[in-house]
Design brief:
heterodimer, A: mainly beta, six-stranded mixed beta sheet, B: mainly beta, seven-stranded mixed beta sheet, four-stranded antiparallel beta sheet, 11 strands
């Protein structure tokens, strides 16, 4: 089953607006991470939130985690054209040992100048 | 922050040939490295987990004889796509795990098999 489902699949907003992306998952996790990927490029780690944390900030990014609902959100405030990219959430599953992360399908964010 | 490199960044090969992709952690030791595959407009799929000095663990559905993984040292893992076919064309991404701070990804390798 898919672990880590982002919604919306695509989001287009005007520059300066806030962008919110959501991620849901199915099993218990150690942590949840958000990554960004520009077209045709590798992933860039944005932020990691542990299962015992509820909210985390990094610059214009704000991530929340609700383990009771098995969901997370990524908020980008005051968006810029350069924020245009795909954003993925990835879960580090409890009991997964050294297993890799499980990624969702991603949200493609377009910031209109 | 931790840096992971991949080489080559882009490779085009003929059907039937083998291609080797290198993944290196540049400023930290990674006992575990991971190989992912990404199809166009789709999410990443974990292919295998590579532990230094031992055999790789492959995910269900991934052919271990086709995708050979060698984790030669704490800073180097290689993925060899053997007898490549056009359907192997994809974006391959490696990552290296440092348990203290998380998992860091390489820039990816675009493989095109003609």
């Amino acid at each position: 089953s898919q672990q880590g489902e982002e919604d919306p699949q695509a989001l287009s907003i005007q520059e300066g607006e806030n962008a919110t992306m959501n991620c849901s998952y199915k099993t218990s996790i150690n942590n949840l991470q958000w990554y960004r990927q520009n077209s045709g490029r590798g992933l860039v780690h944005l932020i990691l939130i542990r299962s015992n944390e509820r909210e985390k900030h990094s610059g214009r990014l704000r991530v929340t985690l609700d383990t009771s609902k098995k969901s997370s959100s990524l908020l980008i405030t005051a968006s810029r054209a350069a924020d245009t990219a795909s954003y993925f959430c990835a879960t580090d599953v409890i009991g997964g040992g050294a297993d890799g992360l499980t990624f969702g399908k991603g949200t493609h964010l377009i910031i209109q100048p | 922050g931790a840096v992971v490199s991949q080489h080559p960044s882009r490779v085009i090969c003929k059907s039937g040939t083998s291609v080797k992709i290198e993944c290196r952690s540049l400023d930290f030791q990674a006992t575990t490295m991971f190989w992912y595959r990404q199809f166009p407009k789709k999410s990443l799929m974990l292919m295998a987990t590579s532990n230094e000095g031992s055999k790789a663990t492959y995910e269900q559905g991934v052919e271990k004889d086709k995708f050979l993984i060698n984790h030669a040292s704490l800073t180097l893992s290689t993925l060899t796509v053997t007898s490549a076919h056009p359907e192997d064309s994809s974006f391959y991404i490696c990552s290296a795990r440092d348990r203290g701070v998380g998992q860091f990804f390489g820039p990816g390798t675009r493989l095109t098999v003609l």
